[in-house]
Amino acid sequence: MKEIWKKIEGQPYLSVIMIALFLRLIAAIFSQGYGMHDDHFLVIEAAQSWVDGYDYNSWLPWNQIDPKPEGHSFFYVGFNYLILSFFKLLGIESPFFKMLLIRFIHALFSLITVSLSYKITKLLSDKKQHSRQDF
Question: How far apart are CA 33 and CA 47, in angstroms?
Fold first, then answer.
């Protein structure tokens, strides 16, 4: 463990990313329960139904009587559809394992936000330091 801390000492960006990744992986592992029926579950449910060859809740316009936008992103459900289709190609059938992998993928994608937030904060803090030095 000391070796890991030695390598990231003096590298705040790497430290922030590693801490964020660690916390997200812990959350992905331990957040396996079904807490409530919300939009996140609906997206996974729709994507899995498409993989299985049907359209649960009639998300697709050709399965609706009067198609209107419902406020859900087709990009996000489509992204999850691609992930779940890939799992099917690999022969992964366990809902528990599929959701664990999806939570890991989402954890990795959330690091983009952490990275950009760090860079924006650094940029803004550097500007404040330069403007203070001018006085």
Answer: 19
State both tokens at 85. Answer: 């289709």
What the block records as the tokens of 34 is 């079904």
Give long-range contacts, CB 8 A cutoff, 24+ apart: 7-15.
12/118, 13/115, 13/118, 13/122
Quick check: pTM over 0.85? no
Cβ(107)–Cβ(21) below 8 Å: yes
Scored b (16 or more CB within 10 A) or e, 97-127 reads: ebbebbbeeebeeeeeebeeebeeeeeeeee
DSSP 37-96: --HHHHHHHHHHHHHTTS-GGG-SGGG-SS----S--HHHHHHHHHHHHHHHHHT---HH
Structure tokens at 96: 């528990």
Are 47 and 37 contacting, i.e. CB atoms less than 8 angstroms apart?
A: no
pLDDT in tens, 48-93: 888 998 877 766 766 777 766 666 778 888 899 999 999 999 999 9
Token pair in block for residue 108 = 């990795």
